[in-house]
Recover the amino acids of this structure.
């Protein structure tokens, strides 16, 4: 009899992925015969704009795109990224040293802690937050300290409330603005304040801007619009939400040269980068940003206005956010997030995400993702209205 083979104990630290569980719940409800409107996952229902997909189809057929790609991103893609940031944020980036292509920002988010953290180091992860920030920190055997994001502070971390003992210990501080799940944005003062702290106490800032292009009025800032940020920060960007390209897996990291170099080195040893045809396509999308992004943004804004109004009419408190395609709201009566989500599923056939799934500070809230067509959103709002709480 062979000895029982053991698996690495690290994986025991991972909870089941939140969205997988919710999807199973949806499937079970559908099996019972219900038709479920899923507003749980942040994956746009809208197809990638046809000119982008047609461009990609041509690139796929080119032999020159069939070999191993340039791991850190082709020169063309990195130049397009740098040029886009100059147009969009007015920031100057060295495309050779301050830009790194990623296979989706989730990939970069998971790998970044490996090059920053050693066993026993400390990383700050906001609570509530996107679950993937924990992945690389857990695998680096570093410690996670959660800091609360509170509505009264505009869902920004209260930097003045962080104990100096903790500030001295931190090596990595994750930020995410525009924020998932709350939709909050960060202003220049906040970014300037955290950059100053990072310099004083020597920690890295990893700012995730995956939702930066889904905004309603003022374009959200890049952390690099604040001077001195390149000394201590990197920022994630992605084509996923901007161009409805979640399945294409293309994103990038900009900022501090040492991090870009070392993460590039790690990736050379782990993956060989994204398919050239997709890199070419992302460059095309960014070069033609004005043709595609504004209309997608308008669609999400219209959806938001209608759906939020529907919820408010039925007594929900909707957080008045400025970006993202999420609605972060509290139900008409005080109840746990999970109870609320199950009640909506059972009584209205609408699946949303419990705020507590993003961390205990999300308790009491529910996140709706506006990634269903207008008629379904209207139907969902009407069904929610009829629930007897
Ligand atoms: C806050 C946040 N960052 C990053 C990502 C991952 O984006 P990408 O598709 O670029 O991996 C997501 C995906 O939902 C997200 O919500």
């Amino acid at each position: 009899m062979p000895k029982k083979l053991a698996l690495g104990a690290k994986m025991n630290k991972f909870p089941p992925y939140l969205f997988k569980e919710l999807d199973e719940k949806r499937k079970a409800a559908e099996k019972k015969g219900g038709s479920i409107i899923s507003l749980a996952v942040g994956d746009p229902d809208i197809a990638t704009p046809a000119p982008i997909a047609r461009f990609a189809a041509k690139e796929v057929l080119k032999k020159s795109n069939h070999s191993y790609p340039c791991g850190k991103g082709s020169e063309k893609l990195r130049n397009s990224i740098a040029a886009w940031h100059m147009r969009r944020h007015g920031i100057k980036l060295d495309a050779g040293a301050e830009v790194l292509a990623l296979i989706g920002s989730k990939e970069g988010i998971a790998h970044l802690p490996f090059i920053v953290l050693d066993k026993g180091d400390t990383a700050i992860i906001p609570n509530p937050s996107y679950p993937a920030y924990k992945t690389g920190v857990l695998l680096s055997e570093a410690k996670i300290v959660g800091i609360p994001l509170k509505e009264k502070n505009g869902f920004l971390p209260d930097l003045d409330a962080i104990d100096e003992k903790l500030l001295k210990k931190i090596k990595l501080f994750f930020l995410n603005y525009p924020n998932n799940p709350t939709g909050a944005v960060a202003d220049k003062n906040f970014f300037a304040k955290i950059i100053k702290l990072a310099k004083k106490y020597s920690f890295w800032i990893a700012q995730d801007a995956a939702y930066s292009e889904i905004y309603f009025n003022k374009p959200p800032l890049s952390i690099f619009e604040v001077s001195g940020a390149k000394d201590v920060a990197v920022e994630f960007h992605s084509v996923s939400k901007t161009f409805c390209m979640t399945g294409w897996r293309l994103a990038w990291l900009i900022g501090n040269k040492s991090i870009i170099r070392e993460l590039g080195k790690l990736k050379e040893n782990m993956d060989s980068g994204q398919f050239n045809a997709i890199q070419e396509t992302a460059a095309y999308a960014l070069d033609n940003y004005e043709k595609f992004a504004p209309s997608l943004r308008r669609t999400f804004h219209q959806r938001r206005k209608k759906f939020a109004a529907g919820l408010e009419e039925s007594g929900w408190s909707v957080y008045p956010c400025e970006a993202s395609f999420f609605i972060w709201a509290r139900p008409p009566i005080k109840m746990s997030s999970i109870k609320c989500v199950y009640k909506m599923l059972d009584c209205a056939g609408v699946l949303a995400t419990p705020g507590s799934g993003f961390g205990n500070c999300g308790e009491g809230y529910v996140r709706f993702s506006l990634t269903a067509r207008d008629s379904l959103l209207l139907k969902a709002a009407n069904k929610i209205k009829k629930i007897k709480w």
Q: What stands out?
A: The chain has a mean pLDDT of 95. Residues 289-313 form the longest helix (25 residues). The chain has two domains: 17-46+291-385, 50-287. The chain has 13 helices and 13 strands.
